[in-house]
Structure formats: C-alpha cells, structure tokens
Amino acid sequence: MSFAPAALPRRAAGLVPVLPLAALPALLALPLAHDGAGPADVGSALVVVYCVILLLRERRRPLSPAAAVVLGLPVVGLALAAMGASSPEAAFTGLGRYLQVFVLVPAAVLVLVRDRTGFRVLVWSFVGLALGQGAVGVHQYVTGTGASYQGEDVRAVGTFGAHDVMGMATAVSLGLVCAVGIALGRAAVWQRVTATGCAVALLLPLALSFSRGAWIATALTCAVQLALAGPRRALKAALAVAAVGVVLTGGFGIGTDRLQERIDSIAQVGDAPDQSVVDRYALWAAAGRMWREQPLTGVGLKGFPEYRDGHATLALSSGSDIGGAGTVHQKQALLSPHSMYLLVLSEQGLIGLLALAVGWLTLLVCGLRRLLRVRSRRPWPGPGPGLDCGLVACGLLLWLLTDFVYGDIGGPSTMLVALGLGLAAWWALAAGEREDVVSLGTVPERVGGAAAR
Fold first, then answer.
1. pTM metric for this prediction
2. Contact between residue 343 and residue 304 where contact means Cβ atoms under 8 Å apart
3. What sign does the CA torsion over 16, 21, 26, 32 have?
4. 72: Cβ contacts below 8 Å, ≥ 6 apart
5. pLDDT tens per residue, range 99-154
6. Which end of the chain has fewer CB atoms < 10 Å from its terminal CB, N or C?
C-alpha cells in the first residue's frame, strides 16, 4: 500500500512529456504554407528541441545502445546520398526530411514516452485525428465538395486537399489500426468499447477515400492483428466487420457503385490497368533504371525528378489530373516513383535501402517477439498486460511497411509515419523488462522507480 501514493504522482508526471507529441497530429488539420511546410513540421522541430532540453535537465542517456544503432542506421545511406545530390539545396532539404521522419521524431518518441499510459495517449491522438478527418471526408462525399474522382467532386480527402489525396486515407487507416489494437487488447473496458465504436465509424471514410493502397494495407494489418489476438476473437471481429460492411453498402447504399468499381480495379492492375496504374508502372521502371546506373549510392537525394524523364518510357503521362476540394482542376507532376523502397533504391542505392530495411525489420522482429511474450503471460484471465500497446505498435509498423510498396513519404501526413515508427520503436526497444516483469499486485518499489525514471 505504501507504493500506490508515490506511484500516482510519478504516473501523472510521466504524461507531461508526451503531450507535445500528442499535439502533433492535431496540427495536421491546419493549412499548409505555400512552400509545402506545415505547422506539424514546425511543431516536430520544437518537440525535438524540447526533447534535447529535457535530456540535459534530467542528465540521462537519451537512447539505449540498441536503439541508437537501429535508428542511426539510415544516417549512413543518407550521408552518402547527400554527397551525390545535384545541388547543396537538394542535399540539405532531402537530408533534413529523411532525418526528421526516420531518425529525429522516432527518437523523440522513444525519449518522451515513459510508460504505457503515455503510449496510449499518443495512440488516442491518432484516433482523434482520424475521426476528425473522416467526418470532414464523409461530408465532402455527401455534399459533392471533395476531390475530383471520375469527373465528380466526391473523393473524401479531409483537410489535406486535392494535392494530397492520400493524406486523409493515411490518417484514417492509421487511426483505424490504432482503434483495432486497443479494442483487441486488455486496456480499460471503456477504452475497448470506445475503440470498437471508433473502428466501426472509420470504415466509412476509409471506403470513401477510394484509396486502393490504403484498403489493402489496412485489411492486411487488421487481419494480422486479429490473428495475433486469438482465433475466437478474430472470428467474432470478422463477423462484425462483415455485418457493418453489409449495412453501409447494402443497407444505406453509400457509394455502392463507385466502391464496387474501385474494388474490381484492384484485380485489373495487370490485365486492364487504368492510366494511374500505367503511370505507376512507368515510374517504377524508371527508378529501376536509375538504380542500375548507380547501384550502391543511387543518383543522390532529391534526384528522382531530375532523372525521371531520361529513364521513363513513353507510357508515362504528363501528370495526374487533380481538382475539387477548393482546388482548380490542373495537372500535378509525378515527381516520385510512388514506392518508398524504389525511391530509396534509386536515390540512395543498395546502401541506403539496406540501412533502412535492416532497421525496420529489426523493429518488426523485436516487436513481434515482445508481443508474443506478453500475450503468453496470464497474471489474470486473458492475455497479459500491454497487449493493446503491442498490437498497435506492430500494426502501425506492418501498415507502413505494406504501404511503402506503393506509396512514399510526402505531404503533411508524413508526420504520422514518423510518429508511427516511433511508437513501433518504443514497443520493440524501450518498453523493456522494466514493465513486462511487473505482475498485478506484486509491484516492487524499485521497479516502479525505474519505470518512472
């Protein structure tokens, strides 16, 4: 009993450092500047500075050796690719963006998230952003004020606009993954019930985003989360999702024709692809040709747009048509291969891709091992504590790794990628035995002190 009074202030104090991180998703709803920089980018820089000040004040080691190695691996490929950039400006902007997304913000998450309570606060900020963007997206579809899709302004894009049609799809997908992870875990009952309702509500805006890539990544990730949670729960959840899908599409008839056509197009990407798929194939081929010219170090950071025309086939169109959601109809240049793996391979070569891939696979393996270990412990009926955090962390990482096959970083929603990688890294590298060994009703004071520190 002597432990409880001391633990509560420490737990409350542990929430303070994570609040700046939780505010970053909310900043994504604010408008962008003309140069593409957004409030979330400025906020992330302030969070990194705050993190450094906090470390100096507390006089503690920022990262464990394992975390420093895993998060520091991309720097090797980035440094070599920056030296091969076409201009100092391209090297500086490319290096800064990659360090922000794959090194600095994930490291800040590792430092500022102190326990599972702080982890859940950041996760709920993902869900909150997804609900807000999803509500805007559904309104856009109903009122015909969304982005242009097949000649009609009905595509749900939230506040991200027609220039970033994947922004809302990314936000809603990651929020849905977070909600499913909480619902399948062993958090408080109110959290699980609320998360279940949020997951069901997010299905509609995800469908109305008409993003085939987001659908595939989300379906795969949620299926893996269900399998990791147990077969009986997986079956129940699958039946519930099927029932919701029938009600939304069959009962209310929301977007039935357009959704069916978009779903059918997934199976036609090889037989009868539309122009967007043809462009993507052409961009992928161009990235492969760039890599074959510079296999080790690539063509340099920000080099893909410059080398694209010299390596692309005639099948590549002049750009994609965008419009609606407050934007006049225009052509948007295709400046990336729309595959994170091919983008890194073409601009950073094998060295850069291996550096990133080894770090991501390390996080995935370590995260899954910890998740299975936590699930096998049963201090009370049901899976062990922290299962929801493990399902969320592994789910976010799996979604990103799947989406990177046909998507890359760009736009304000990239901040969610950085935060998602940070949560995955926290679970895989920083959650540690200091929390996993704690059993219900047998919490030693020295363990609580270590967790608080």
1. 0.88
2. yes
3. positive
4. 103
5. 999 999 999 999 999 888 899 999 999 999 999 999 999 999 999 888 888 778 88
6. N
pLDDT at 125: 95
| Residue 365: inside a domain | yes
Considering the domain boundaries, does residue 295 fall inside one? no
Say if CB 317 and CB 279 are below 8 A apart.
Answer: yes
Q: With beta carbons less than 8 A apart as the criterion, state whether 144 and 323 touch.
A: no
Give the CB-side neighbour count of residue 239, counting CA atoms within 13 A: 5
* Domain-embedded: residue 152: no
Question: What are 165-206's pLDDT values in tens digits?
Answer: 899 999 999 999 999 999 988 778 888 889 999 998 999 999
Asked if residue 34 belongs to a domain, the reply is yes
Residue that is written with structure tokens 């420490």 in the block: 10
Query: Can you give the pLDDT at residue 119?
Result: 94
How far apart, in Å, are the Cα atoms of 273 and each of 114, 148, 195, 281? 48, 19, 37, 10
Domain that holds residue 44: 3-121+257-269+337-452
For residues 81 and 298, give the distance between their C-alpha atoms in angstroms, rounded to a whole number.
7
- Of residues 336 and 399, more confidence is placed in 399
From the list 200, 415, 148, the residue with the least C-alpha distance to 156 is: 148
**Helices 116-143 and 414-425, interaxial angle, to 10°?**
150
- How many domains is the chain built from? 1
- pLDDT tier at 269 (50, 70, 90 boundaries)? low
What integer pLDDT is reported at residue 378 of this predicted model? 55
Give the Cα separation of 63 and 43 in Å (integer).
22
Helix axes 19-27, 116-143, angle to 10 degrees: 10
Count of other CB atoms within 10 angstroms of residue 413:
25
